[in-house]
Amino acid sequence: MATTAAIGRFASSTEHPRAALTPVSLAGPDERLIQGIWPRSLAVWMVAGYIALFIIRPWEMLMPALGAIRFERIYAVAMICAVLVDGFRLRLSSQVVTVLAFTAMMSICTANAWSLTAALPVYYTYLTLVVFFFVLLSVARTPYTLAFLVTCYLIAMGLYLSKAVWEYYVNDAHYFAMGVRRLIGIEYTFGGPNEVAGSIVLSMPMLLFVYSIRREFTASWPKFWRRWLTRCLAGYFFLAMWAMMLTNSRSGMVSFALFVGLVAMRGRGIATKVGYGLAALALIGVLWVVAPPQTKKRLETIWNPSAGPANAYESAMGRVNGLKLGILIFRRFPLLGVGPGNFIPYRIRHVDGGIWDPHNLLGQSLSEIGLLGTLAFAALVLVALGNAQRAIRLGPRCRDPRAVVPWRLALAARETLILLIFDGLFGHNLLRFTWLWAAGFALMALLQLRDMMRQERAAERLEVSTQLLLRVGA
Predict the structure, then answer these.
(1) Do the bridges between strand 38-39 and strand 180-182 make them parallel or antiparallel, or are there none, so unpaired?
(2) pTM (2 decimals)?
């Protein structure tokens, strides 16, 4: 109960100043919903399905036969066709320019790679992320669609974690390292313990987003579904926390503490921030009490290396060594790096023979895409943060009650980007899909708020003109 109360306090930490007392439906006049819930647009459903496929990745572990027939590519082509039929829309913006610029640098770095064989698979994966970025921008045109797609993402994460926890307890699927059993995912790309913990933490801003707009989001839903949404969101939170403890990931635990701190800082005024800070400490305290002993001992190694095995300390120092090696490779290839996915092959052949990744963002970016690529990536992230911040400032000025959705989504996108940057201290997450997804959400939030403000100004001008005509006529 204490945990639930803390979550509720966080969700209400920054209420939109014009949030309606009576929930207003997010569905626009031309929004086609079945039973007030389900979109009629095939393109929206195809995008929702692709989100689930990208999270679960069934062709890697659950159903390898899908990989043999290239199911992901077939589905992606079908999704693109559905979007084209629905009407592809793209608005040029600084974010679009930075995404295209980084894509151009990735292309150049790949063409100039030390090993083209190692670079091409990574480059192809990144291109799929870029294509989906533009698909997302085209499809998510209304506040309801935005909320619906984020909810589908949480559903996919819930299914993923449920299966992972099931395999952990029923089939003893785990990774034993640092003296503890660690939960693993149900696919290979992001299935390591640290990657799973990272995925959990990165889903928290979106979970809080959906929870905070649940009244507006479900205003047109039948009562049965409205009740179950809140229950499912609470269930996902407890599942995610338990799964993160089972990963025994120190970086995941520290990142979650940062997320709690970011939410606590949403409050206005010192007194409010202190109150939310105390709620944050209460939440962390409850999680510490219920955490398994091995998780507590694992976390203790952050400030007390002697609390764990020697290889736990070596693992932490591996991040520092990875950064040093990344800088070493960068000095040899300063402009374009050795190419995407080439850190390990080049390290094996020409550095120290090690078979490990750099385990930090800066070492990965400098060594693999050089100075030019790193600057292009930094521009992409800075523009995304700027878009989120502009949307956060613009939201309270918008009188449209639906503005609470893009406004809160901008908050979630900003916190996601900050968490990604922080996670880059412990992991090589340069090409993690969440960068582009968060950038896309921040951009869509800003564009929707600007559209609402533009419509408000047009309505005001029309009202003034009407009043002038009435006065002249009188």
Answers:
(1) unpaired
(2) 0.89
